[in-house]
Task: structure prediction
Amino acid sequence: MPHAHTHVNKGIVNRLARVEGQVRSVKSMVESGRDCGDVLIQIAAARAALDRAGRLILEDHMQHCILEAVEEGRGQEALDDLKVALKQFIR
Result:
């Protein structure tokens, strides 16, 4: 069962805002007819930034949510849910 986060990591929110800006920039590059190589480089940069944000969210999840679930006796359920999410995140 999904859970609500009672903590927000401002660093993650800031990273995601930067990724959002990068993606907007890539869209603008495509619309203006920029060189394909330049566009692909920027897509790779945005993808890498999004992956870094995902890793931070995963670390935060393990440090807070998984530990909390274990303390509440829901450890196996939390690990099962994490496995499902990781199958989607890591391809």
